[in-house]
Design goal:
- It is built from 1 helix and 11 strands; from the N terminus they run αβββββββββββ.
- The strands form 2 sheets. It has a 9-stranded antiparallel sheet, with no helix packed on it.
- It folds into 2 domains: 46 residues; 137 residues, Lipopolysaccharide (LPS) transport protein A like domain (lipopolysaccharide transport protein A fold, Sandwich), CATH 2.60.450.
- By secondary structure, the protein is an alpha+beta fold.
Length: 205
């Protein structure tokens, strides 16, 4: 009888030790699995630094778009088109960050103005476009050209403006200054400050 009790005790002790080992192994396996999943998610998502308008944000959530295209009409007439090589939109925001931006504006008289820059942004709600980096505006009308660092175009109002320094040339004059507002529909140009104008030979004032 004592031998039977001793044998049962030995089996109970052995099972207890094995259960503890199994629980420990199971815990280690679960911990390693969770850690591996966390590392995989971090590596696959990464962190992207995105510049939108005049500030920089860092987010891991967003979507990349190849060959971005937008356009707008006024009445039944195509008024502007936007193209970019790439776009990145942060989740929850209306702004789309753009790379290699081109905006084309079509005048009522048939003239075309083309605005280009290295980067920019577009807000689908406000229809505001920002172009940055070696910004150039050209048109075959009056041999017009404009260069600046940052340009803002409001598709709703048809106004192009910059607060920085600019250089503008045409058949009639060369103009430099700081701050510019152009009403594309009315073809009005207003220089805000530090204006310098050199009229070309043969220009009639």
């Amino acid at each position: 009888m004592p031998c039977a009790v001793t044998a049962q005790a030995g089996v109970w002790f052995f099972n207890r030790i094995m259960n503890r080992r199994l629980r420990l192994l199971l815990f280690i396996f679960i911990a390693i699995s969770i850690l591996g999943l966390a590392v995989a998610v971090y590596v696959s998502s990464g962190f992207k630094e995105v510049t939108i308008n005049d500030y920089t944000i860092t987010r891991s959530e967003g979507s990349t778009i190849d060959r971005v295209r937008y356009s707008g009409t006024r009445g039944d007439r195509l008024e502007w088109e936007l193209e970019a090589d790439k776009g990145f939109q942060v989740k929850g925001r209306d702004d789309i960050n753009l790379t290699n931006v081109t905006v084309i504006y079509y005048m009522k008289d048939g003239a075309v103005y083309t605005m280009t820059g290295r980067e920019g942004s577009y807000n689908a709600q406000t229809e505001d476009i920002v172009i940055k980096g070696d910004v150039v505006v050209v048109s075959d009308k009056d041999d017009f050209s404009l260069s600046t660092d940052v340009l803002r175009y409001s598709a709703k109002s048809g106004v192009v403006q910059t607060k920085g320094r600019f250089k503008m040339t045409s058949q009639r004059a060369n103009v430099t200054g700081r701050g510019l507002v152009m009403d594309m529909a009315k073809e009005n140009i207003k220089v805000l400050s530090e204006v310098s104008t050199v009229f070309k030979q043969g220009t009639i004032l």
